[in-house]
Design goal:
The protein is mainly α. It is built from 15 helices and no strands.
Length: about 375
């Protein structure tokens, strides 16, 4: 069930980037949405098949340099324009609420979105796999801190560019603001470099999620559940899963080309962490406290309840709270009902296993 929830959340996570990439291909190449969708699938699949996670990491360094340079220049242009606007015109165009009020959509909703992002990242295999792919623990830690450090200098210029485009081109949809800015207000060569940076960022992140889905399905479902041990069959399953993932994700992106990206991001984070976060934390910090049956029930309830509340019942409460609350409640009941006896048997098994390892070392 953890694998199903993770795969579903990562599929939804692909949609925002895929929608943006399709729109960029349409703008730059002048092709139809159908051709743009097929082109994006081909590029991402080729990236995964011929580079893998290591190549994805190299692409990440290149895209970071391109994005930093392009956004710093674009942010300077946008801020210079915004600063030159008359005060009255600026405040009329950008009133405090909602432009400068972080909680304009409601304190509870904003805090819920922040919390869902934190829980989703902590529960995501896509992020964990990037750390596991590092050459050593020091490199993994350095990469994690570097990734978090670049968010602010990338985010602030994007905000300025978004405000600039709202003031000068209010007719365009939000997802087209950044590529339109680069194509319209940069020299041709620099605009091309900036667009390449955006596409590299989207392609590498989508390739990383597709690779994570393929690895999860091939290893956990085919390898462990179906007891397939052949490396060639697992590799073939991995590649077929990646291809199917890209086709399905791109198809839904094509259907919802004008969807709100942030809403899709928050929904994917909720599905990723609502049912997994509490039992995963318990397994890491307090192994042996919960039986597999109660853990499975907790994950199922924590994953399905947010989906039902959001898509079926259309409840106003943040679905993350329902998922985490129901998951934690079932875990508490499970610990009270069978936790003590299970811990005793778990500790006994661990002790016996340690004794066998010590005896094998002595032999």
């Amino acid at each position: 069930m953890v694998g199903v929830a993770t795969i579903l959340s990562m599929l939804i996570s692909q949609l925002p980037g895929t929608i943006a990439a399709i729109q960029i291909f349409i703008q730059v190449l002048g092709i139809t949405p159908e051709v743009s969708s097929v082109l994006f699938v081909f590029v991402v699949v080729a990236t995964v098949f011929f580079s893998g996670q290591k190549g994805n990491s190299l692409t990440g360094l290149i895209k970071m340099a391109l994005l930093w340079g392009s956004l710093l220049i674009g942010g300077f242009i946008a801020i210079k324009y915004l600063a030159s606007m008359p005060s009255d015109e600026f405040h009329a165009m950008f009133p405090y609420d909602p432009w400068f009020n972080l909680f304009s959509r409601g304190t509870a909703e904003v805090l819920g979105n922040i919390f869902s992002m934190m829980v989703g990242i902590l529960s995501a295999q896509a992020y964990i796999q990037a750390l596991f792919s590092a050459s050593d623990a020091k490199t993994a830690a350095r990469g994690a801190f570097t990734a978090s450090a670049i968010i602010i200098p990338i985010g602030l210029p994007i905000v300025a560019i978004g405000m600039f485009m709202h003031a000068t081109h209010p007719e365009i949809i939000p997802i087209q603001a950044l590529p339109t800015f680069f194509l319209g207000y940069f020299p041709d060569w620099l605009g091309g470099v900036a667009i390449a940076g955006i596409l590299l960022a989207i392609i590498s992140s989508t390739a990383g999620m597709a690779l994570a889905i393929g690895t999860l399905f091939a290893s956990d479902f085919v390898g462990n559940l179906m007891h397939v041990k052949s490396n060639s069959k697992i590799l073939l399953t991995n590649r077929l899963t990646i291809l199917i993932t890209m086709v399905v994700g791109t198809y839904f992106s094509y259907l919802y080309l004008n969807a709100t990206i942030l809403e899709l991001n928050f929904l994917s984070m909720i599905l990723r962490g609502a049912g997994v976060f509490v039992p995963l934390s318990l397994a890491v910090f307090k192994p042996g406290w919960l039986t597999p049956k109660w853990a499975f029930a907790s994950i199922c309830c924590g994953t399905l309840l947010p989906i039902i509340s959001k898509m079926v019942l259309h409840l106003t409460i943040n679905p993350l709270y329902l998922g985490l609350g129901s998951s934690a409640l079932l875990i508490i009941i499970g610990i009270m009902v069978s936790g003590k006896s299970f811990r005793q048997s778990y500790l006994a098994a661990q002790t016996a296993d340690n004794n066998r390892k010590e005896e094998s070392k002595e032999d």
